[in-house]
Amino acid sequence: MEMNFVQGGILPRNPKGLLGIITAPLIHADWKHLIDNSIPAFILSLALFYFYRGISYRIFFLIYFIGNTLVWIIGREAYHIGASGIIYGLAAFLFLSGMIRKIRNLMAISLIVVFIYGSMIWGLLPYDYKISWEGHLMGAISGVILAILFRDQGPEPYKPSWELEEEGEQEDIGHSATST
User: Fold this and answer.
1) Residue 78 domain flag
2) Pick from 6, 97, 167, 179: CA 20 to 30 A from residue 25's CA?
3) From the first residue on, what is the mean pLDDT of each consecutive set of 10 residues in the chain (180 residues)?
4) Are 52 and 117 in contact (CB under 8 A)?
5) What is the 3-state composition of the chain as percent helix, strand, coil, each rounded to the nearest 5?
6) Is 4 within a domain?
């Protein structure tokens, strides 16, 4: 028995489609669609939650809601389903945040994202009417916006032990000079 939940997706500019902002990423056309979204969603979420511990929940849910809300505002009149927008948002955030912040670990993640998921760029273009390129694009836009807005939040640059020792020595020098 096949069940169809497509009506739970985002239907742009229609009040019936507002619930889809929350439910659309949970609905997939078939098992292949679900599996195709699950693997990158898991890997990119793992990277987000590992490297951006302090802000990961905010970033994830903002990508979820901003991307889907933008699809509701500008998408073509069709039901939009699937978690691809979140995947594009995570990939865009991880890539751009690493480049902006110039922290070695985050830049490495940026390069890995480009290496593994670089071909996703073609999903931002309308090439198949069955695929919500709008969801992809709005997810990516939300990831870019959040990478810029959160550029000063998140992980601090790693400092080798010798730099920490030098800072400690400078503080000691500064304290002894003021205490005399």
Assistant:
1) yes
2) 97
3) 81 97 96 96 97 97 98 97 98 97 92 94 92 97 98 82 67 55
4) no
5) 70, 0, 30
6) no
Whether the Cβ atoms of residue 10 and residue 75 lie closer than 8 Å to each other: yes
The answer to whether 131 and 78 have CB atoms below 8 angstroms apart is no
In a domain, 1, yes or no: no
- CATH number of the structural domain spanning residue 100: 1.20.1540.10
- What's the pLDDT score for residue 163? 66
Token output for 4 = 């169809």
The DSSP string of 118-176 is GGGGGGGS---TTS-HHHHHHHHHHHHHHHHHTTTSSPPPP--HHHHHHHHHHHHHHHH
- A 10 A CB-CB count for 17 gives 22
At position 20, the amino acid (one-letter code) is G
DSSP state of 10: B
Question: How many Cβ atoms from other residues are within 10 Å of residue 73's Cβ?
Answer: 12
